[in-house]
Q: What sequence folds into this?
């Protein structure tokens, strides 16, 4: 699958997620390759390790304020730290799980791992060039980072 | 409704946000009896709670949903299991159905889609009995 097609798979998943789950569409910015620098992370990051036919990860990173509003839109009243971690991991899980429709059954996904804080980093092999898809929802900025090889 | 069975609903998902969402969103005439965080916990809770209707995630730690579906159906072949998973490929859905699940709902889902999927399972069971 070409890089362009790979990006398209995740764009579809992102747009569908926000419309379905929080009933307000998100806007995806122009995807770009993070060359020579590690993508910047936000307050909460959920990452799914990919194995099988593809290797790598799918990570979703978002500010706390955005996750709180998303929880509210889902009628959740408890904005505790655990639920924010849970949500960011579940979003990463949904984006990567949905991708199996196009990548196939051998696109194996792990359970989510969550990191907290803007100083946390994604572990990337030397020379790796992950794709970053900027996502704007309401006035909040988040990103989906995809690294597959 | 005379003779109608009040189903006992258990939710199995490693996400607390999803467990609570399903509990809130379902507006059917069912009794919510509990929620489990993985397949192993679901098997333990099944013995005590005796659910008749289950929503089951697939990707979970300790024991995944596919294995759990098979074990639960072995215990109770009449159990109504709706798989609720982000894994969107056809093969995954077919595998879950082959293990004994009665339906498959892909994440993300709306409240309406969840209720329709659960209601369809209940209707199918009532039509058979």
A:
């Amino acid at each position: 699958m070409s890089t362009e097609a790979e990006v398209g798979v995740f764009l579809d998943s992102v747009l569908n997620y926000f419309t379905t789950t929080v009933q307000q569409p998100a806007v995806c910015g122009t995807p770009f390759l993070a060359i020579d620098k590690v993508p910047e992370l936000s307050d909460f990051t959920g990452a799914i390790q990919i194995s099988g036919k593809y290797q790598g990860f799918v990570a979703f990173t978002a500010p706390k304020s955005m996750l709180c509003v998303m929880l509210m839109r889902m009628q959740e009243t408890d904005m505790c730290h655990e639920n924010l971690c849970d949500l960011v991991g579940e979003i990463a899980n949904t984006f990567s799980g949905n991708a199996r429709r196009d990548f196939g059954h051998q696109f194996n996904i792990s359970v989510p791992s969550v990191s907290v804080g803007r100083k946390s980093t994604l572990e990337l092999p030397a020379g790796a060039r992950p794709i970053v898809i900027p996502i704007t929802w309401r006035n909040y900025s988040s990103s989906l980072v995809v690294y597959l090889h | 409704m005379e003779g109608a069975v009040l189903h006992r609903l258990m939710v199995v998902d490693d996400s607390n946000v999803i467990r609570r969402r399903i509990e809130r969103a379902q507006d059917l005439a069912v009794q919510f009896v509990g929620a489990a965080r993985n397949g192993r916990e679901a098997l333990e809770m099944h013995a005590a709670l005796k659910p008749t209707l289950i929503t089951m995630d697939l990707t979970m730690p300790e024991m995944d949903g596919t294995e759990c579906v098979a074990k639960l159906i072995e215990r109770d072949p009449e159990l109504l299991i709706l798989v609720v998973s982000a894994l969107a490929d056809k093969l995954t859905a077919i595998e879950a159905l082959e293990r004994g699940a009665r339906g498959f709902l892909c994440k993300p889902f709306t409240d309406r889609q969840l209720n329709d999927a659960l209601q369809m399972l209940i209707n199918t069971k009532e039509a058979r009995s």
User: Anything to note?
Assistant: The first strand of chain B starts at residue 7 and ends at 12. The helical segments of chain B are 16-25, 39-49, 65-75, 90-99, 111-128. The longest helix of chain B spans residues 111-128. Chain B has a mean pLDDT of 93.
